[in-house]
Each structure stands twice: as structure tokens, then as C-alpha cells.
Amino acid sequence: MKRTPYFYLVLFIAKLTRRLLLMLGRNATNFPGELAIWLCKSFIGRMPKPEKVVCITGTNGKTTVANLVEDVLDRTGADFYCNRNGSNVYSGVASLLISNSDWRGRPTKKLAVFELDERSSNLILPYMRPDLMLCTNIFRDSYKRNAHPEFILDFLNKYIPDGVPMILNADDMMCSGLKPGNPRTYFSIAKQPGDGGGSRNIVQDVPACPKCGGELEWDFRRYHHIGRAVCKECGFASPRAEYTVTELTGTDMQADVRGRTCRFPLANSAYINVYNSLAAIALLCELGLTPETIAGALGSIGISATRYMEEEANGRKAILHLAKGQNPVACSRAFENIRDYPGKKAVILFLDDFFDAQHTVENISWLYDADFEFLADQSVVQLIAAGTRHWDVYLRLLLAGVPAEKIDHMPNTDGAAEALRTEEPDSVFILYDVYTISLAEDTQRLVMERLKKEAAKNAD
Amino acid sequence: MRIEVLFPEYCSLFGDLFNVKYLQDCLPEAERIDVSLRDEPELKGEGLVYLGPMSERTQERVIKKLMPYRDRIRELIDSGTAFLLTGNAMEVLGSYIQCEDGSRIEGLGLLPVYAKRKMMRRHNSVFLGDWNGGEVTGFKSQFTMAWPMEGAKGLFTVKKGVGLNKKCPYEGLRVNNLFATYLQGPILPLNPCFAKSLLEAMGAPGVKLAFEEEAVEAYRARTADFHAKVR
Question: What is the pLDDT of residue A435?
Fold first, then answer.
């Protein structure tokens, strides 16, 4: 796109605004870009881009994958920038282009890694052609923003430019079908012990063959529609992957990387984290890093503490676990992780949408798409639902088969830690949304204090 | 008692199948029949026929699937069989859906309503309406707005939120024992009074709801929140 004098004026104003915001102690990760796009709709298109642009999108895991990619690039001394501390919508991307350019807009680094909100792709991708694009998966998400998966699939198919090389999840029949004409690379986790053919989840976003609507024969279905299948009628099948995890242990994984057997360390062996690590490895390999370099860097990287954090006192744990509100699949994954975690568990649920709780009545339909049934397991000894919609969560838990005597519920989130029966659980999970991290951290601190007191009492 | 669920593998986008699960919990002796889009509906005319919300492409497939059964469905509606249609399922039985490019998708023509679809303008809102002397709470998240045609009878009177369209004083449609509403998701566990009315229409009056006391408490708390927070 042509760079007119008006574009340079807008760039100058945006850069000046950024400087002012930084002087005022603000982070300036969103507003300068928003202002620039308001003044010049095609601003992103007119800005010069780095030599290589990588975009990471998908329903779940895109932030974790982007963080992993950025951490590895950081440790290997790559010259790049990313939107880790900024927004993944169009204004965040524009702000990043502004902050990583000189006064004429020329990029100061050679590589950019953008985490991209899939609903913002219509405002970004027509103006910025990626050199490599990764999609983690496509699932049902917020009903308000994302409607349904078919809508998101159509949306991405429309706005991802033709010809852009794609890195896709071979175990997701929707994701693997994205941009069918584009060059592509797949990642997959081979069938593991315990992978079955049945479905244990309420949400099934691929109920039949995505091509012809015929019945699918599943080799295995790991969770929701993640697995490998073939259509009985048209033969459409999950694609073969170039990056395949073949073996998993608690601390590392063996993978076939384009025909080579390699080992990579794992911060957490839950499937969602394995998929995230594998997606990051595939992307980094496609960027030219060797598996050995990636494995070396991954060894020193954990999961972001804002997504999962364990604290231990006298052999008992208080665990922060992100469970994105209004996202039934993300919450179902969290619930299943809790069920599968060893020992007896108590769970504190902060599931309310932070903003809706203050200003309106949250659309709680998503509670009925989330698999609360996993929490009806015998190993879950107490559930505490706290927040504005506590009665609704309580009812949902009862309908999931959780006995009433295991559930405490209250409107006030401050009372959650106090309601904990500390003598029973080996671990206490605190589930929270992205906007309630500080509440979760405060609660974790209170839980730790109570667990320590309990330990001291037992020692006496 | 039979509960025939049409195309559940496709027609449940917002936790809607829990309506059926809740009815099963209320009526443990009821027989649930799930009809896949690959199979043929039974439409026997007893109990309930349920159809939930679906994607836009699925809507066209469902209309095509049900078109040969149009007369049978009309017969069932006229004879008082209970139907529950949630989300955009109403549009399948409606007159037509007008798309953004001006094209029309013809519905079964059994309900006096047509819809206009705008894929880049998703409507999200919360809803409080009158029902049978009580109140119904619910949520809307949709690409369409609907316009009633001659002879249409509304289901819920709007108190807060949006009806069939932004100017319509009512939400949903009712024809005999057919209840059609754009309210999405688990409207039965969330609205005990409406669940009881539906059970009565199904031929099961006076049935105690599953977790009735808890469902009523949750409903009361939510309704109070609607009155306090929603303009």
C-alpha cells in the first residue's frame, strides 16, 4: 500500500501519543494503534513490516503457544518482537508495529510473532500477510463473540490470504481443513494408552464428516472432537502429520520430527499442554531452528504462572488453574485435569464473568456446555462456588451428579477460602478467569495459610 | 412419554440439549429418541418434539430434511402435540430467512414469522419477560431478527431486553402447544415456571421438577439480579 504524507502524519501522531503515554507511566500497548487506525483505516497495511511475520491463532492455547515460541526465540538470541504484553486484536497489532519502528515506520527487527485473536482476523489479515500461520485448534468459544465454530472457520477461511503456509492440528478435523489450497504442515499426538473411541464430553463440534456429513469412524477420540477419524462414506480422514508425538512421560515427550526421532522436555503432561508444546516446536522448526536447540531452550521454560501455578505446604498443594469463563471447552479441560490429578481434591470455582457480574446478568448457558460431570468424581471431596452466579453454578453441579453435601456456595468471593474443609483434600484447585487473577492469587495465599495451620495443628 | 430430539448432533450450540436432559430428570420414565440428521424423524405425536439452535448451513440441511414431513408436522401442531423450538430453530418452521445478499431461504411455512440474517452483526442481549403470571429469564445471541406475520401470537411479553425484533413487544411464538423462542441454552432448568407449563403441555401436569427447590432459588436470585442490573 502506498505511504502518503497523511500516513506519515498519522504515524507521527501515534508515536508522539505513545511517548506521552509512556511518560505518564502507561503501557501504551493498545491506544496508539487504535488512534492510528481511527485516523487511517488502512494503517496496518501501510506500515512497513519486518522481513518475516508469524501469526498464531486458534480457539484455545494461542497465548501459551505464542509465549513458548517467544521464550525459545528469546533464549536463542533471535532478533524479534511480539505482542506478549499487549493486545491480540487489531489495535494491539498496530501499536506493536508503531513501537517497533523508527520515525519513518521502518521496522527495527527482522521477525515479528503475533498472537492473533481469530475474531480480529478481518481487521488485520487483509492488511498484513503472514509468512507463516499457525492455528492451534477450533472449538466452541464465547457465544457472544464467536457464535459457533462453523462461523469462525468460515471467517478464517475468508481472511487468511491464499498461499500462506499453514501449521495445523491434524487431530482436529475442523482446524486441519483450514485453507485447503494453502501449503500446510501438521502436528499430532499419536494414539496413547487410555485414548478410546467414545465421547465423554457434552460439546462435539465435529459430529460428522466435515466434507459430506457422513458417519465418522473414530480410531480414537481424545476429548471433544480431538482425535483421529475416517469418514465411512467419502473416505475423508485426519491427515498424516509431519510432527508427531509418539510417546509421553510425565516430564518429556518423544516426537517424530519430519522422520527424525527427538525428545523434548515438558512442563506439564496434560494433553492441552502437550499440544501447545508440540505446536510451538513445529512452528520453531519451520522457522529454521533445530530440534536440539528447541529442546535445550524448552528445558528452562515452565507454563506461565498466570495460567497454572502450584504451591506446596507440608505435602499438600494449592493450585491456580486458569479456566476461561464463557469458554465451555477450556473449563471442561480444567475439570478433567482436576479429576485426573492424584489424591483427594477440593475445588474453588470463580467462574463469573468479571465485567458482567458488575453490570448485567451473565449469559450462563455455557455452564450447560461445560463438563461439570468430571467434578462428580469420588476423588473431588469439596466444591466451593463463589460469586454472583453461585446459585446457578450450584444447580449445575447438582444436575451433574455432585452430592449437595459436597458443595458450598456463596455470593461473596472473599469467603471461599474460609469455607474450605482443610482436613480432607491433598490439593486445593482454584479455578479463575483471566480477569480474576488477583482474586485467585489472594485466595491461594489464604488457602496456603489455612493448609499450613492445619499441618501445624496435626504436628501438635 | 416420548421425547423426540431432532438432530441433536448438530442442533445444540449453546448448552441447549440440557433442556432435554432436564426433562428426563423430571420424567425418569420418559423415552428419549435422538434422531440423527442421517436418519428419518418419527413424529409419532406424543410427548414432545424438540429442535435446538444450529449453524446457518445446518439450517438449510434441516429445512431440506423436514420439508417432506411438512404436512405431518402441521398435523401434529394442529392436534396439540408439544413442540419446543429454541434459538434459530423457529426459523426452520417459519416462512423464510432473508440473507444479506437479498436471497431467500424458504422455511417450512408453518409459523407466521420471517427472519432477516446479518452475519456481521451478532445480536447479544439478556431477556426478562412475562409468562403465565410469572417471569422468564433468558439470553439471546443470534445473527437474525424476526418479524411476525398475520395471525402470530407471541410467547413471552417483553419486560426487559429485545423481543422478536427490537420493536416487537413479545418474544417467541406460540401455536397451540408449540413453544418457539429465540432464548438460547438451558431455558427449562433456568425457568421452573416455564418448565412446568411445558410439562403440562406434554401431558405431565403437576410433575415435581428435578432439584425444584434449588432451581427456584437460582431462578429467584437471577430474576432479582435482572431487576437490579438490567435496564
Answer: 87
Instruction: Tell me the domains of chain B and their CATH numbers.
Output: 2-229 (3.40.50.880)
B200-226 per-position pLDDT tens digit: 999 999 999 999 999 999 999 999 999
Region A186-210 average pLDDT: 91
Secondary-structure percent of chain A, ordered helix, strand, coil, rounded to 5:
40, 20, 40
Q: Report residue B117's pLDDT band, with 50, 70 and 90 as the boundaries.
A: very high
Q: How far apart are CA A319 and CA A322, in angstroms?
A: 10
Using a CB-CB cut-off of 8 Å, the residues of chain A touching B230 are 360-361
A405 touches chain B (CB under 8 A): no
- Residue A243 burial by CB count (10 A; 0-12/13-18/19+): exposed, middle or buried? buried
How far is residue A367's CA from residue A385's CA, in Å, rounded to a whole number? 13
Average pLDDT, chain B: 97
How far apart CA B194 and CA B208 sit, in angstroms, is 13
Number of CB pairs, chain A paired with chain B, less than 8 A apart: 105
Residues of chain B found within 8 Å of residue A145, distances taken between Cβ atoms:
122
Report the alpha-carbon distance of residue A152 to residue B80 in Å, rounded: 39
> A86: alpha, beta or left, given left = phi > 0 and alpha = psi -120 to 50?
beta
> In the prediction, which pLDDT does A284 show?
98
Q: Which of A151, A208, A399 sits opposite B9 (nearest CB)?
A: A208
Mean pLDDT of B178-199: 97
Check pLDDT > 70 for residue A305: no
Pick from A204, A366, A392: CB nearest B9: A204
Report the predicted TM-score, pTM, of the whole model to 2 decimal places: 0.92
Q: Which of A353, A368, A402, A409 is the mutation pick for testing B, counting most B CBs within 10 A?
A: A368
Put simply, whether A140 touches B (Cβ < 8 Å) is: yes
pLDDT value at residue A200: 81
Does the structural domain A310-459 have CATH classification 3.90.190.20? yes
Helices and strands in chain A, H and E counts: 14, 17
Q: What is the pLDDT of residue A352?
A: 93
Distance in Å, alpha carbon of B174 to nearest chain A alpha carbon: 23
CA distance A287 to chain B (A): 35
Q: Does residue A104 sit in helix, strand or coil?
A: coil
Among left, alpha and beta (phi > 0; psi -120 to 50; other), residue B27 is beta
Which is more confident, A251 or B5? B5
Domains of chain A by residue range: 5-207+236-298, 310-459
Tens-digit pLDDT profile for residues B123-143:
999 999 999 999 999 999 999
- CA atoms of A72 and A60, how far apart (whole Å): 20
What is the pLDDT at residue A306?
A: 61
CATH superfamily of A5-207+236-298: Mur-like, catalytic domain (3.40.1190.10)
Per DSSP, what are the bridge partners of residue A141?
Answer: none
Quick check: helix, strand or coil at residue B84?
Answer: strand
Helix (H, G, I), strand (E, B) or coil at B93: helix
pLDDT for A27: 83
How many other C-beta atoms lie within 10 A of the C-beta of residue A162?
Answer: 8
In this structure, the dihedral spanned by the alpha carbons of residues A450, A453, A454 and A455, taken in order and rounded to 10 degrees, is 120
More confident residue, B208 or A356: B208
